[in-house]
Amino acid sequence: MKYLVANWKMNPSSLEKAKELFYDIEQGVKDLSGVEMIVCPPFVYLSELRGETKLGAQDCFWEQEGAFTGEISPKMLKNMGCEYVILGHSERRQHLRETDEMIGKKLETVLQAGLIPILCIGETAEERSEEGTQEILKKQLDILHSIPDTLYAIHPLIAYEPRWTIGTGDACPPDKAKNILSYLRKWLSGPILYGGSVNPDNAGQYIDTGFDGLLIGNVSLDAEKFVKISKILDKI
Ligand code: PGA
């Protein structure tokens, strides 16, 4: 089973367009059996999208309820039919100044609510050397050690997304991604996904190098291309 995650980010601009995109994706993937499809739309569309495709949120808060203006809790997401939550996306680390400490607290609350976290990790352009990359990934994954044993039944999906590849069209060369994957496999037993400028032409290469799935931003807003990728994954 391969994982294919659509991260719509802050798109599209209306519910009508969101429904249309969701419907087109659903239609395109309905006969596939080898892919776990997860669409992560903005919060406001979550309750309106229903189908075979699993739903995920793009973020959440680290408490289940209370006086936290503007925040959404894992429990709310669970009650709404969500099964997954993206955590630690590089855009949140960059624009919202999310730290590993904050992401660690979110991780625990998400697991408590029975949701599956999709934990994003990745190095910046400055940290790009092999040593620098390994060091930063290790630091970002440290939060897994603080998960209480009782919550260990749920395996987070780990998404390796080099930050310099996100939304740039400059995807990580598959051989570099492969080296990182072997490094991560030394101490992670759950599924590991690749993300960053994936398109129908390069998608298969990451699966061939051993990744368990893909996390896709830009191209997930184009139903035709996204469905094409899902068919590539289904065949491998
Ligand atoms: P991209 O985004 O596919 O547009 O590079 C990936 C991501 O942000 O997860």
Gist of the model:
With 236 residues, this protein is an alpha/beta fold.
What is the count of DSSP helices, taking H or I runs of 4+ residues? Answer: 8
Our measurement of the CA-to-CA distance between the termini, rounded to an integer number of angstroms, reads: 10 Å
Helix/strand class: alpha/beta
Q: Which kinds of small molecule does this entry bind, naming each only once?
A: 2-phosphoglycolic acid
Strand order of the largest sheet: 1-2-3-4-5-6-7-8
What kind of oligomer do you see?
single chain
Mean pLDDT: 95
Which geometry do the CA atoms define? globular
What does this structure look like?
By secondary structure, this protein is an alpha/beta fold. It has helices at residues 15-29, 74-79, 90-95, 100-112, 130-141, 174-185, 203-208, 223-235, and strands spanning 2-7, 35-40, 54-57, 84-87, 116-121, 157-160, 192-195, 213-216. It has an eight-stranded parallel barrel with strand order 1-2-3-4-5-6-7-8, surrounded by four helices. Strand 5 (116-121), helix 5 (130-141) and strand 6 form a beta-alpha-beta unit. Helix 1 (15-29) packs parallel to helix 8 (223-235). The model has no long low-confidence stretch (mean pLDDT 95). Bound molecules: 2-phosphoglycolic acid (PGA).
